[in-house]
Structures are given as C-alpha cells and as structure tokens.
Amino acid sequence: MEPYETIEKDAVYSSENALEALTLGNYAILKGSGIADGYSWVNNYFRFGEYSGDNVALSGSTTDPLFYLYNYKRQVKGYRKQAVWTAAYKAIVGCNIVIDRAEEGLNADLDNLIGQNYYLRGMQYFYLTSLFGRPYNQSPETNLGVPIKLSTDVDDQPLRSTVKECYEQVVSDLKKAESLMQSEKSASYATKEAAQALLSRVYLYMGDNDNAIAYSDLVINSGRYSLLSKDDFKKYPTFTPDENQETIFALRFVDGADNSGQWDDWYAFSGMYAAVDAQGKASLDGSGWGELYASVTYRDIVEEWADDARAAFVTSMVLDKNSEDLWGIWYGLNSYKSADSDGQKKLNGLLFHQDSVSADRTILYQELAHTNGTVKLEVPIITEVDSKTGVTNYSVKPYQINSETGATQLLTSSVKLRINQKLATRQTYPKYFITKCSGQENKGHLWSPVISRLAEIYLNKGEAYAKKGDVGNALLNVNIVRSRAIGSEAEYTAADLTAGVSILDLVLKERRLELAYEGHRKFDVFRNNRNLDRTYPGTHLRGNDPFFEVDYNSNVIIEYIPENEILAQPDLQQNL
C-alpha cells in the first residue's frame, strides 16, 4: 500500500483493517493529493514557517497569498491559511474517530495504530497553536490558542482554548502516543521515537528545559537513528524517509503517485525556491518559479567556512558557466535623487548591484547612470583571509551617484563583495536557488517534508542546556551538529562567548544554519523573545510601512483565524 491511501470515513467500521485504512487516510489528509496540492496541510504549513522568517528573500511581487505571509501584511482571508486550518481539523476529526472506535489493549498492532492517531492529533494541535497563538512564554494562561475538538460530533463546535490548555492537550496526546506505539515502523509513520522527538521540541517551546533534555535523550539513546556523514548530508533531500538513518518522521511523498503530471514541479512547495531539472538539480531552464531565494543574511553565515555542508542547499545561478569573466555582487546605496528622504535612501541601500571585476580580483568597475549619461569608475577591492576559517573575504567601498546632477561620492563604509561569474537575476535580484526541498530519488521537486530528525534533537538538547546555564553541555550538543556539517575545526569553544555573544546566541545560530527551510525559523525567533531582523534585500521592503524588524511583541507574529471560521462560528474570537 502506498503512503497513504484512504477510504471515506462513512465506509469505516471498527474492524482493525478499517481503522488502519482510516489512519492512513489521516496521514493522507495532511499530505494532500500530491506535491502540487495547494490545499494540503503540509504544502502550506511549511510556507508559514519559512516565508515569514529571515532565511528567504522574495525577488518580486506575486498574486499568491504567500506574499502576505512573507511581508507580514496579514489578511483574514486567503486560501493557504484556510487550507492549513481545514486540513488540520479534518485530520483531527479523523483521529478522533479512530480513538473513539478502537479498543486499547487487544493487541500490540492495534495499540500502535491508536497511538499514531494520538500522535497526529497532538502534532496538529501543536502546529496550529504555534501558528494562531502567541509563544508559550507570553502569558499562556490568558492568550488564546485554537479550539480543542476531541469528539466526532459535527455539532460540537468548541471555542478557542488558551495557549496553556492547547499545550497541555499536545503533551497529553503525545505521551499517550508514546505509551501505545511499541511496534517499530519506518520513518514514514509515527512511532514512539517520533512522539518523544516532538515532545522534546514542545517542552523546549514551553521552557521546560529538563523535560526537553530528557526526551531528547530518549530519542538519542534509542539507537535507532544516527547523523548522516557530511557527504551524505549534502544529499539529504535525495533520500526517502525510509532509507535515511537521520529522519525520525516525515510525511512521505511517493515517486509516480505524487508527481505524475508535468505541472507538479511548478506548483510544489519548493517550486518557489528553485527551478530544477528532471533530477532535481538547480537549473535556469528547469521546472519551478524560482522566485524566493536564500537571503543575504543566511548566505553570510553559511559562507563563513569554506565547506559548510549546509551551503550545498543554496546554488548561485551562473548565466554562462563557460565565461571566464568575473563579476562582483554587493548591496548598498548606488543611486539617489537630491530630494530623497532618509527612509528612501535606507531602502535604496538594500538594493543589489552586480559590476564587472578585473581578472586579478583587485578592481571593481562601476558604471553609474545619471540624467545625462553614465559615469565609469574604478574601485579597489580589499582582500582579507580569515585566519581561523581560511576563507578569502572581499569588500569594497563603492561610489554612489546623484542621478540628477551626476555628482559622485564614496559610500561611508565598506560593504561585502561576492566575486563570481555573472549571475542570472530576476528584477535585479541575483538568483540563489534553494534546493533543500527538492530532488528526492533524483526526481524534480519531489520531497518528503521532515517533521523530526536527529540533528534537531541534539539542537533541542543544546538549547535547553544553554537556558539552564550549562555552557559545557550546550556546546557539546551543538558541536555534534556543527562538526558533522563543517568539521571539528569549526567547533565552538568557551572563547567564542563574548560580551555580545551568549551561548544561546550560538545555539540559535546553529539552529538557523541546520534547520533552514524546514519550517522552524519564525518560531525559533519569536519564542525566544527576539526580534526578527529583515534589514536585507527583498521585496518585503517595498510598499507601505515595511518591516525592517518584526517585534516579538507585535500582533503580526500570529495569523488571523480564517474569516470563514469566524463567519461560521461568530463566537470564535479573532486575533488582534
């Protein structure tokens, strides 16, 4: 049976085979009908987790509602938000049916089946509360989460519970799942370890660091999982969940069943991240819109070391690989008008530029336009080799021009310069395709979204230790992940802690590096009472009142309840 076939619930009775069919149907609801299903839970939830973070930069406008996730201009309508809500509650009711009809204690297989439904229900309440409720550390007793529906009665329409009540339900469901799921299954299905892995994250979000560590240890010490080698990690997306020793649980997409049409690779979740060829490798002529690129700030940290494995998931798209000409990419204020406001200059200071570079990498050739023509200027390139990483870094202090008068002057400070072959652009933005969510089995945009994997568990444990003030154990666990990605030479030490860099800073940086594009980033920032820095190029800075920084106390960090739900149930309180 392919993951996950389903039958209509009206045809389901209480036989074990029927309950198994319904359970598979609950997985199928979350997964949707294929990689291009825009109404599935997984296709949309990952967008909410990543598009509103700082790992991505949109290269232009779009009519898709994802634009409002990206720029924090919330709407009460929108099919993507509605899809998350509808699919989640449809799956929850499906889980309730199995839990209600199945009898525990008859045999291990049936108990395992019931446990999977407790897991799926707890998982959904966790993700829904993260999306529509404020972080747990912000008055969970009074802030509202989502309605907790535990029945199959269509007339049962509960109001929103508090964030604390929602988390209590999540913990209860996951612990029940843990106790029932004693049979081993592949990573395409919920297991005892999947419940423990998610509990480690849930407790971390709750600030219960001791339990976060305890549940991390249960997963690590189970012996069922191990980190991939560095070389294999660079190919992580190509493995199916069942053949990946690091994956704990992922929603499995099947080659042939879930990517059967020519448009699948365009409308898949990762179709906005990259265009890819038939094998899933980045390609300017491939399938996919390729409009949402790796942000400058993410590339800055993933490029700190010459061979960070995480860099394998970001590809700079060269226009002509046969050309030997060099080009320098930088961003800053290049052209301005006399009457430009400080705000306009700030925006213009976050625009990309691409200029020719001399063959010996010593001169940047700027060509600046003004009303009466162009000015060509040469700027010396500063080269520095990082003594710790061995990476060669380039910087330049470029010119800016008054586009009306033609007057030029140097920028007041140097900016980072990336020297490469000339890159393809979209609306002036160089294309840095993201391929972390493409290429399973070397098939286009096929991908099985990861819910939990072992690297996250080490990072959960490291963060919990950091918050307990145990620097040694925090570094130990973070360095397990960091050493795999780069090498032992890159491991953090106590010397990396300064007045401006805490142990928590290092942990969160590593979470960002390791878990990018897996749906974590937005929540990792706000649940730690940190503001989201979006002072980097991208169309989130275009339009009225852009957010250069998103405050963790702001109302915009949580989504509106879909308007259709409020209309159907007027007593359902809307978010501010």
Automatic annotation (TrEMBL):
<keyword id="KW-0998">Cell outer membrane</keyword>
<dbReference type="Pfam" id="PF07980">
    <property type="entry name" value="SusD_RagB"/>
</dbReference>
<dbReference type="InterPro" id="IPR033985">
    <property type="entry name" value="SusD-like_N"/>
</dbReference>
<feature type="domain" description="RagB/SusD">
    <location>
        <begin position="245"/>
        <end position="575"/>
    </location>
</feature>
<feature type="domain" description="SusD-like N-terminal">
    <location>
        <begin position="71"/>
        <end position="204"/>
    </location>
</feature>
<comment type="similarity">
    <text>Belongs to the SusD family.</text>
</comment>
<keyword id="KW-0472">Membrane</keyword>
<protein>
    <submittedName>
        <fullName>RagB/SusD family nutrient uptake outer membrane protein</fullName>
    </submittedName>
</protein>
<keyword id="KW-0732">Signal</keyword>
<dbReference type="GO" id="GO:0009279">
    <property type="term" value="C:cell outer membrane"/>
</dbReference>
<dbReference type="Pfam" id="PF14322">
    <property type="entry name" value="SusD-like_3"/>
</dbReference>
<dbReference type="InterPro" id="IPR011990">
    <property type="entry name" value="TPR-like_helical_dom_sf"/>
</dbReference>
<dbReference type="InterPro" id="IPR012944">
    <property type="entry name" value="SusD_RagB_dom"/>
</dbReference>
